[in-house]
Amino acid sequence: MFNSKIDKFLEFDNKISDLKTKKTEYLKVIQGLDEQISNTTDERLNYGIKHYLDKQKRQELLETAAKYGYSPEKLSQLQKYVEEWNQDVITNDVLDSFRMIEQFVYENQETYKGNIMYKFSKFLSNEGRNSNEN
């Protein structure tokens, strides 16, 4: 009778030990996932910084958004990033703001301006050439 109680304690101890081992394994998996999330977030940030690297593109985007009635307060907050564009000051939130503005401009532009043929003809015209020379 005494032996069966000891065996039961041993059984619980073994079960606890197994659960702790599983927990450690899962924590390693979670740590690996956290690292992947962090790396992907950094890659996203780097991609976004490159995507909006052109200062003129950022400025024109904000100006066009203002013409279409985007929030002046939000545009004012983002204006400082036209000049300062580097990894020290840009966050994914800033990138998301520029993406939202870009989407807003796209949705509010005249439909013909989104057409590839319009963009191509603008590029071939003097207007397109002059803007590329600057």
The best one-word shape is: elongated
Our measurement of the CA-to-CA distance between the termini, rounded to an integer number of angstroms, reads 93 Å
Q: What value does the average pLDDT take? A: 88
How would a crystallographer describe the biggest sheet?
none
The count of DSSP E runs of length 2 or more, i.e. the number of strands, is: 0
**Count of separate DSSP helical elements:** 6
Protein structure class = mainly alpha
As a whole number of angstroms, the C-alpha radius of gyration is 28 Å
Give the helices and strands as they follow along the chain.
HHHHHH
The helix fraction, in percent, is: over 70%
Strand content: under 5%
Unreliable spans are none
- The number of distinct structural domains comes to 2
In terms of topology, how is this protein built?
Elements lengths: L1 H50 L3 H13 L4 H12 L8 H17 L7 H9 L1 H8 L1
Describe what you observe in this structure:
This protein has 134 residues and is mainly α. It has two domains: 1-51; 54-133, no CATH class. It contains six helices and no strands. It has helices at residues 2-51, 55-67, 72-83, 92-108, 116-124, 126-133. Helix 5 (116-124) packs across helix 6. The protein is elongated, with a radius of gyration of 28 Å. The N and C termini lie far apart (93 Å). The model has no long low-confidence stretch (mean pLDDT 88).
